[in-house]
Amino acid sequence: MDVHNVTAEAETFTCNAYLATGEQTTLVDAGAMRGVVDVIREHTDTLDAVVLTHQHGDHVQRLDAVLDAFDAPLYAYGSHPRRDHALADGDTLTVGDEECEVVYTPGHADDHVSLVSESALFSGDVVVHDDGAFDDGSFGRTDRPGQSRERLIESIGRILDRMPAGVEHMYSGHGDAFHGDVREVVERALERAERREPKYPDD
To answer: Which residues form the Metallo-beta-lactamase domain (predicted)?
Structure first.
């Protein structure tokens, strides 16, 4: 599975939006970068699916532009006026060339899902590798209205329970993609979240 971060060159705040090419060319999140449609077109002429990890603004601001440009079906857990397929925990879908399991992972957002395949984890904002708060294993913020550290901790545990052995690629909503022992990174994120200390103490 070839995965491209199509918002990597953004000059304004956005999530990482990942294009996985292959049998079912899929965009995971649309991001907030103007010009993302042009970057996607550098890699493919068609999109078979757009999948949302959750619907925070930095993940969906350019969603309409992407859907209009590629006429792709939208998969999402939470309701959305353009949703074609409702995701549920335990569903499977093909992303690029790999079958992924949908894991419901609330805490950072009520509608958050992660995608797990035999080799990769698309973790959205629940777990990241490096995001300015922690390196080599960080977790999504939970200090804003509607967020919950307790639910996030449960969600990270659910990822560990459902993630196959040998996953070597983690594509998260912020920070860098990680290639290596993903389980170690997720376990470190869980340990830090369980301390229940503020992620950003100065905020």
So the answer is: 14-174
